[in-house]
Amino acid sequence: MKGKIIGGIGALLLILAGLSNGPDGNREIVPEPEVIEESQTETSTKSGNIPAPATQVGKEKNPEPIGKEVPKENCTSTHVGYVQDVKIKGENVSIWYPTTEAARTYSYSDKFSSELAYDAAPSQCEDYPLIVFSHGFSGCKAQSIFFTEKLAEAGYIVVAVDHKDALCNGNGLPIDLALESSLFEPEKWSDKTETGRRDDVKNVISGMLSSSKFKGSIDANKIGVAGHSLGGYTALGLGGAWDSWRDSRVKAVLTFSPFSIPFTSKDTIKNIDVPVMYQGAMFDVFITPFLEGPDGAYIETPAPAYFVKLIGGTHFEWTNLLCGDKKTTDACVNGNGNLQLINRYGIAFFDKHLKGRSPSVLNSKWGLAEYLMK
User: Within a domain: residue 30?
Assistant: First the structure.
């Protein structure tokens, strides 16, 4: 069984940008949480949903001037600012961030839009935590808009970077789908494997902290990394799972169905020294089984650590595939229970470990298949 699971990882990740399988139908969130104690496991028998085709994300330029000055900020009213396909220390990124400038309808593509302030000046009402998002193998920086945009709405500056394997970037950059080690042999991976991803994230952090536009709005002591699949591998490595990758600027790591097997096979995941949240799904059969159980990544990760398991859901649960035919970010999130849970627990995790808050949801099992904390 283990060999079959490992063997399927490569094929699964190779089709990240184009396929999704599973039952249709949306599921509502349970309105009130059930409080649990630390290290307690909860299980639910409700069925989940996995919607169908992905929304193709493109780019659109707004004619308004970049970074225009705001004479006086109204800090009681903030919106989400956005810039797409900009260079930060040589890396191609998109950035979502708080702004006090007015939002208007912005089209990510001819099929998907949101209310954003394109190229607006970042708010300086407070110093905001910085989150760098690392996409999955053959994904792209725009693969999880429902999360990156809503994280900015919650008061974070969010930068998503295109790695060399970004397949859905739509920006004409060259694509390299050659991995440095086989996904079928994770035990052969080492801290020398996929160092380009490590360098991308480190460059983005350095570039944002020195950016004339953003540095005045960032709290340099509150930096996190989030990642999906191979991006989760990247995030865990930066959190200390590879000692040579460790970045002391990174204070918290959020992972969505992360490729964690290289670390557990080398017994290095125990070296992580920052808070970690793992998110998995019931039908994510090639990754989630390696996160849970007595030999899984969660149990081997030092506290504080969290494990969130979604009802239903595949490896693509953390991508725009879940938006299906929805036309806006709000419609996408409001119409899908699992997307609400991904955001609710992910944002609460960063709120606790970067903002010093105490979100009650982190002590609750709220419409999940399973929840663990320590």
Answer: no
Question: Residue 117: which CATH number?
Answer: 3.40.50.1820
pLDDT tier, 176 (very low <50, low <70, confident <90, very high otherwise): low
258 in Cβ contact with 235 (< 8 Å)? yes
> In terms of residue numbers, what domain contains 214?
2-22+48-66+76-357
Is 137 within the bounds of a domain?
yes
**pTM of the prediction?**
0.82
Q: What is the Rg, in whole angstroms, of the alpha carbon atoms belonging to the chain?
A: 19
Residue 284 lies in a domain: yes
CA dist 150 and 158 (Å) reads 10
- Asked whether residue 105 is domain-assigned, the answer is yes
Query: What pLDDT digit, counting tens, does each position of 317-350 carry?
Result: 999 999 999 999 999 999 999 999 999 999 999 9
Report how far residue 146's alpha carbon sits from residue 319's, in angstroms, rounded to the nearest whole number.
8
Q: What is the pLDDT of residues 225-277, one digit of tens each?
A: 999 999 999 999 999 999 999 999 999 999 999 999 999 999 999 999 999 99
**Number of domains the chain contains:** 1
- The b/e string for 220-233 (b: 16+ C-beta within 10 A; e otherwise) is eebbbbbbbbbbbb
Treating both helix axes as pointing N-terminal to C-terminal, what angle do 145-153 and 337-355 enclose, rounded to 10 degrees?
40
Strand-pair category, 91-99 with 157-161: antiparallel
**Tokens describing residue 88:** 């930060």
